[in-house]
Amino acid sequence: RQAELRCEIESVLSVTVAGERFLLRQAVQNLLQNAVDFSPVGTAIAIRIATRDGRAELVVEDQGPGIPDYALPKVTERFYSLVRPKSGEKSSGVGLSFVKEIMSLHGGELRVDNRESGGARATLVF
Prior knowledge:
This protein is an alpha+beta fold. The protein is built from 2 helices and 5 strands.
């Protein structure tokens, strides 16, 4: 997709994230794959790591079309899927529900919303 990957670390204090490495890697990989799938060719995908209130956050932002308002409350539900702009097809709809479950198992949460400047934002809060 010829996307530029921008990584930023801000205000990181000493925070240890403990958990199942395989599952946490799958969660991050899913968010990155979604960002790639929904990003127009040649745009940037941003990854930001920060700490807020003693919790670690990993944020993935894209410059795609964003998530329609009607779909925002549903995108983390199992089997709910939006059409991929590149292929015109839907995925299995298990990715974000899987990420949500992984974060719940690790005492964290998944937040999904739209950026004010366009595109989507997914945040893992540990």
